[in-house]
């Protein structure tokens, strides 16, 4: 079971995606506070990001190979998953597995193209990853 809670924060100017490691109880506490404010008609602070319950959960998503994959997509801009696998010198099946995990965690997106053949073009919309661990 993945211990990830989905939120995404990408800063427009600096293009940073924020990942946070914080206990579920803290996330639920924040949710309860927000819900109370909404019910009272009070203004709520908009917060988004990608949160993980533990360092282990974060490590399962951001492996060395997946970070390399994100970097190659950003730098080389492959025009297909097949081309990406060639840049990485990895088999297509393992690249697809990593892409699926990254997509499920909102760290990569795809543009669908049908120009005589259907293909997915992987895209990374940020330049840096900021990781915060709450203690």
Fraction in helix: 40-55%
Order of helical and strand elements: EEHEHHHHEEE
CATH architecture: Orthogonal Bundle
Number of spatially distinct domains: 1
So how many helices? 5
CATH superfamily: Winged helix-like DNA-binding domain superfamily/Winged helix DNA-binding domain
Structure description:
This protein is α/β, with parallel strands linked by helices. The chain has a single domain (4-133), classed as Orthogonal Bundle (Arc Repressor Mutant, subunit A), CATH 1.10.10. The chain contains five helices and six strands; from the N terminus they run E-E-H-E-H-H-H-H-E-E-E. The protein has a four-stranded mixed beta sheet. A two-stranded antiparallel ribbon has the order 4-5.
Produce the secondary structure layout.
Blueprint: E1 4-5, E2 16-21, H1 24-39, E3 50-52, H2 55-61, H3 64-76, H4 81-88, H5 92-104, E4 109-114, E5 118-123, E6 128-133
Parallel strand pairs: 2-3, 2-6
Antiparallel strand pairs: 1-3, 4-5
Summarize the structure in short.
The protein contains five helices and six strands, in the order E-E-H-E-H-H-H-H-E-E-E. It is α/β, with parallel strands linked by helices. It has one domain: Arc Repressor Mutant, subunit A (Orthogonal Bundle).
Which characteristics define this entry?
135 residues, alpha/beta, Arc Repressor Mutant, subunit A, 4-stranded mixed β-sheet, two-stranded antiparallel ribbon, 5 helices
């Amino acid at each position: 079971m993945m211990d990830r809670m989905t939120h995404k924060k990408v800063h427009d100017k600096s293009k940073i995606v924020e990942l946070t490691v914080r206990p579920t109880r803290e996330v639920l506490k924040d949710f309860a506070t927000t819900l109370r404010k909404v019910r009272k008609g009070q203004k709520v602070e908009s917060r988004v990001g990608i949160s993980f319950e533990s360092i282990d959960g974060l490590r399962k998503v951001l492996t060395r190979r997946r970070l390399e994959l994100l970097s190659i997509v950003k730098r080389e801009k492959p025009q297909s998953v097949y081309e990406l696998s060639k840049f990485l010198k990895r088999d297509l099946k393992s690249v697809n597995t990593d892409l699926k995990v990254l997509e499920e965690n909102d760290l990569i997106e795809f543009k669908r193209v049908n120009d005589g053949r259907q293909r997915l073009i992987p895209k990374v919309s940020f330049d840096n990853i900021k990781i915060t661990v709450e203690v």
